[in-house]
Amino acid sequence: MKIAVVGAGLSGLAVTCLLSQVVPVGCQIVLFDEKGVGGGASGAGAGMMHPFAGARSRLNWRGFEGMRATACYLEKYPEVIVQRGIFRPAQSAAQQADFVSCAEQFPEEACLRSGGLWLPKGVVVDLPLYLSRLWERSFEAGVVFVHKRIETREELKDFTVVILAVGGDFSPFRSLFPEGMCLKAVKGQLLELSWPDDQPPLEHAFNGAVYLVQAGKRVLLGATYEKEWLEETPNMVKAREWLLPRGEALLPGIQQMPILGCRAGLRGVTPNHRPLIGRADHPQETWLIGGMGSKGLLYHMLFGKELVQRMGFPIF
Question: Percent of the chain at pLDDT above 70?
């Protein structure tokens, strides 16, 4: 058996890593990506994870399951966690009321602090490092990486099974998506800022109209949510215009911090903002996994396991 996985982001690496532990001896797994491991939107993200994404801080669909599934792997690589605890400042009286409701429903997961909601189990992960750890585990199990862009299922006709985990870069495969498996590519950008030497580090991450996380002397401010865009590459002018004023409201003085760079990536988003997995409309066995949007870290292991199980492999 030969299995091809197209896409080396969170979803693709989760599936690759899991498959590499359960496939029969002699089965070959090949991972394809033209941008390298974590070279797309997954590697460009800030790595913030908690189960209450969204302005109203309601529990995300299967949010606790996703947290548990990802936590099992984060425990294997504790060095990838750069911050623990996330604070959500209230932007309005209505949002504060939503935060009160969240804290009352889930007292072990959320509690009120002056001006907002505290999520003690929220974490910030160094995504490039985490993705490299998943790849190392896959490589040690015999997975082969090919630095190549795949645009048609026919390019992989020699493979028994193909898994498409292409994130926001799904356009070449749109015809393979069954009815109801609709995706839209949304562009996200963040800024890398230099934290002042004379300032103490942030005690925790912030998640408001924008998010703010710190790793050493770098601060990541994100992210834009661009439904209309012309290019996938970073647009520093647009990122500055959108992010810096919102960042200033979150942390006064941030507009004076030197900008080190800008990251960008395309995220695949479904109409109901829930991930999808399923069998593609193709005579050769082809599977799709995507639609993680900005919650790839929350969902990648949970749905990676479900896909592997649907393929007929046991997950222990």
Answer: 98
Q: Are strands 144-146 and 205-207 parallel, antiparallel or unpaired?
A: unpaired
How wide is the angle at C-alpha 42 spanned by C-alphas 36 and 45, nearest 5°?
125
Cα→Cα distances 14→31, 69, 143, 264, Å: 11, 11, 13, 22
By the 10 Å C-beta count (0-12 exposed, 13-18 middle, 19+ buried), 199 is classed as exposed
Output the CA–CA distances (angstroms, integers) from residue 127 to 134, 215, 249, 282, in the order listed: 11, 11, 26, 33
Q: What is the pLDDT of residues 49-84, one digit of tens each?
A: 999 999 999 999 999 999 999 999 999 999 999 999
Whole-prediction pTM value?
A: 0.94
- 86-143: pLDDT as tens digits: 999 999 999 999 999 999 999 999 999 989 999 999 999 999 999 999 999 999 999 9
